[in-house]
Write a structure and sequence with these properties.
CATH topology of the largest domain: TIM Barrel
Bound molecules: S-adenosylmethionine, iron/sulfur cluster
Number of helices: 20
Structural class: alpha/beta
Shape: globular
Largest sheet: 8 strands, parallel, barrel
Number of strands: 11
Length: 475
């Protein structure tokens, strides 16, 4: 089937009614739930059941301070019991900021004349990749504006270039993408280059607000965007990431929109999205957005806890848009991936750390500019296992989150040992002495904690091999 982005309308019956605003508002407008109801919903989630819209709305409507605490506590224990202590690390790499869209929240929008429009050349892309490998990264997300120049073939070529870079002991082992929606053949071209997750954020699930903030370009078509990841699935990309930009509309509506999107994928494709992102609007060059729906810190912590409980099988990503204090707090509620050493400037990684951002070359302001190693130090100190693992993706174990929960013992047998092996690689190749000492102490403790599983001896052997110079070992 040929799709026309400008005039696209949902015709496929499987997608209807996918987002029904009246249904969402009916749930939000239900009367306040009693304590027992809220506790029942939290318990259902702790039993690893994905919550329905109605159940999620119960959590949204529970606004007594002690119930909010119980929800946060529930999210905390779900995170501990289900996800364990691993935190996956990645970095964004902006490839180009040309854009034909006019999104009012974004520094790259077409009407923003003060933006320097840059597309990295192949050589610049190689240099950026080297600089990221040099920090210790193994997983990147490539980011692009929406522009005819950034065709599927162009994106596929940039993916091949980045995968092709080998530098001292390192290389990038998994590339995810955040780019504009494509048609099915376009998604197929990009998939064939070997990508991991394709992320597309709906920004807002509320169509009238969507129309208000997207004033030009293909992105104006709400349905083309809403169904984008369905086309990705049809093209064989079963690893997709959804997201909403919090601050455009009522956060309660967006949370239910995200949960509805997850239900849709599970119903139609039998697999939910791999990740959910929940960026909050940050300052950007000539930002042009109403402040009415901006999400306060306490609401943000609350909404992340609710999302954690609502979709226990979905990975959650928290980026450097948020300041370190909020990131540290929210890590406890179930975030599974964070970026580190982030630099949004086009070509910025090879220039080195920028203390002050230049918003004429960056999409928005970030609030956590710690280096990757500073973040590693914090994680290690707090007892988390920083992970650069890419084993499932490379062994073709897609839908890995599902596997983590559904295959008994999978986390202990595979995820934790693999996280420790990638940590050992980092310590050998990139860490200063203090990080190395603290990191190996953590490896020892966590290896000991795995002693009742069959892998400990094999794990110790592999860690020794890493120390001896072998790389890229996994279970
Ligand atoms: N051009 C692609 C698109 O629109 O899908 C790539 C998107 S952009 C590079 C990645 C995400 O950043 C957007 O989907 C949006 O949610 C988010 N974003 C844009 N402006 C932002 C801002 N001012 N603050 C925080 N996040 C922002
Ligand atoms: Fe372009 Fe994406 Fe920014 Fe919109 S959010 S202006 S599509 S880069």
């Amino acid at each position: 089937m040929i799709y026309h982005p400008e005039t696209y309308r949902i015709k496929d019956k499987r997608m209807q009614p996918f987002i029904d605003p009246d249904e969402i508002w009916d749930y939000i407008n239900q009367k306040k739930p009693d304590k027992q109801k809220v506790r029942d919903v939290i318990q259902a989630s702790l039993n690893k059941k994905r919550l329905s819209l109605e159940e999620t709305a119960v959590l949204i409507n529970a606004d007594d301070p002690d119930l909010i605490e119980e929800i946060k506590e529930g999210a905390r224990s779900l995170k501990e019991n289900v996800y364990g202590e691993r935190i996956v690390l990645f970095a964004p790499l902006y490839v180009g900021d040309l854009c034909t869209n006019n999104c009012q929240y974004c520094g790259f929008r077409s009407t923003n004349k003060d933006v320097k429009r840059i597309t990295l050349t192949s050589d610049e892309l190689v240099n950026e990749t080297r600089a990221l490998i040099d920090q210790g990264h193994k997983r990147l997300i490539l980011v692009y504006g929406e522009h005819p120049k950034y065709s599927a073939e162009f994106i596929a070529e940039t993916v091949r270039i980045v995968y092709g870079v080998k530098y001292s002991n390192g290389e990038i082992r998994r590339l995810n993408i955040n780019a504009a929606p494509f048609d099915i053949p376009g998604f197929r071209t990009i998939k064939d280059a070997g990508i991991g997750t394709f992320q597309i954020f709906q920004e807002t699930y509320h169509e009238p607000t969507y129309a208000k903030v997207h004033l030009g370009g293909v992105k104006r078509n709400y349905e083309w965007r809403l169904t984008a990841l369905d086309r990705a699935q049809e093209a064989g990309i079963d690893d997709v990431g959804i997201g909403a930009l919090f601050g455009l509309y009522d956060w309660r509506f967006e949370v239910l929109g995200l949960v509805r999107h997850v239900n849709h994928f599970e119903a139609v494709y039998n697999v939910g999205p791999h990740t959910i992102s929940f960026p909050r609007i940050q300052n950007a060059l000539s930002l042009n957005i109403s402040k009415e729906n901006l999400v306060k810190d306490d609401e943000f912590v609350r909404l992340v806890s609710i999302l954690r409980l609502a979709v226990p099988y979905t990975g959650m990503i928290l980026t450097a848009r948020e300041p370190a204090e909020i990131r540290d707090q929210i890590l406890r509620f179930g975030v599974s991936q964070i970026d580190g050493g982030t630099n949004l400037e086009l070509g910025g990684y090879s220039k080195g750390k920028n203390e002050v951002q230049d918003l004429s070359m960056e999409q928005f302001q970030i609030n956590d500019n710690r280096s990757l190693n500073e973040i590693m130090d914090e994680l290690i100190k707090s007892g988390y296992i920083p992970s650069f693992c890419t084993a499932c993706y490379r062994l073709g174990r897609t839908g890995e989150h599902f596997m983590e929960f559904s295959v008994p013992g999978f986390i202990k047998r595979f995820c934790s040992p693999n996280a420790l092996l990638t940590l050992a690689e980092y310590l050998e190749d990139y860490a200063p002495a203090e990080t190395k000492a603290a990191g190996y102490k953590l490896i020892e403790e966590k290896t000991h904690a795995l002693k009742n599983t069959q892998n400990v001896d094999a794990l110790k052997e592999k860690i020794q091999l890493v120390k001896d110079g072998k790389r890229d070992l996994y279970f």
